[in-house]
Amino acid sequence: MAGVLYIDTSFTKIVVKPVHPTFGAEVQVSDWNNLDDDAIREISSAANKYGFCIFRNTGLDDKGHVEFSLRLGDLDNMKRFITGERKLRYPYFELFDAGNIADDGSLLDPESPRGHTNRLSSTWFPEYFKNLDPSKFPMARHRLAQIHEGSGRVNLYVGAHLHHIEGLPDDESTRLRDTLNKHVTQPKYVYTFHWEQPGDIIMWDNRALLHRAMGGSFAGKYRRDLRRTTVHDDSASAWGLNDTEGATGLGYQLTAKTLDTPEVTPATSTAAPVAVTAAS
């Protein structure tokens, strides 16, 4: 793979090749159908060390994707989003649809209601959140600098979602927030991942990395069939400085170590799956 720097020989069950001077690695697994516990531990260790892992041409189907993810931790699922007559395209609640394929298997029109809904984060969300009652939906509080348990590194907990920094005047808080966000998004700290074939997986650690979709010429023209699983954070900093009992507005559901199969008929689709695993 272009950009691979060397082989990390500290792993024995998997082959790990860094793809960037400071983070990220391509991981080769000899047999996805026979991953033993030692291999899973090494994959987790590689994710902790490098922040994200790329797995090429895994050959995993939906069931294999979910089963692999379950071995990394408890999974979020789609149940809370399934209302009315909506049906899943996939046979497991743990798979989140991150593609551009409509419920009937056709290409999603970016100008359709669902296409516009996917872009609400940049239009409607700011206006909606501005009117929320902070007494009912208090802001979550997290440490700006956190110890990443898996590696011992100190991470900055920043991003576009950061509202303000406690203890600073608004203008100073905004300046510091913008300075930190500009620092962590310098080109030398950015890696762009490209899908190459069906079965590619990228697994990244939300506790250590920022991520964003890049867009592209596929919108409205080409099928983009992506499935994502989300592993919940089990570290001491998972809830930040917030009351886990009184947390509001979260509403997530966990799948713990067993597959959760809905009664659905997946839409007919001839495109082979490309999967994303987000370790959060």
From TrEMBL:
GO molecular-function term, one example from the UniProt record: metal ion binding
SUPFAM superfamilies listed in its UniProt record: Clavaminate synthase-like
Domain TauD/TfdA-like: 16-77, 108-230
Keywords, alphabetical: Dioxygenase, Iron, Metal-binding, Oxidoreductase
Listed InterPro entries: TauD-like_sf (IPR042098), TauD/TfdA-like (IPR003819), TfdA_dioxygenase (IPR051178)
Pfam families: TauD
UniProt keyword annotation of Zinc-finger present: no
UniProt similarity note: Belongs to the TfdA dioxygenase family.
Protein name: TauD/TfdA-like domain-containing protein
Species assigned in the record: Parascedosporium putredinis
Lineage, broadest ranks: Eukaryota, Fungi, Dikarya, Ascomycota, Pezizomycotina
